[in-house]
Request: fold
Amino acid sequence: MMFDGLAFMDALGVAFSTMSYDGPAFGAFGATCTYAALPDFSKVIVCLSMLFGRLESVTLLSIFIPSFWKKSGW
Reply:
């Protein structure tokens, strides 16, 4: 996210808050702000980090692997 022009502390705060359950970020994206000011590429990265950070990897793998659905009878 620093490649998109975010300051180091802002990028670090956004990364920590999206990959964990720590709550809001700090700095320009703190508790009273939203991620709407992020560039489009950073929003994509934030969405992916939320998926990989907050969801368990087994859940993601079970969604995307077809053999899981064939064995379970769905």
In short: The first helix runs from residue 8 to 19. The chain has a mean pLDDT of 81. Residues 28 and 57 are 30 Å apart (CA to CA). The two ends are 39 Å apart (CA to CA).
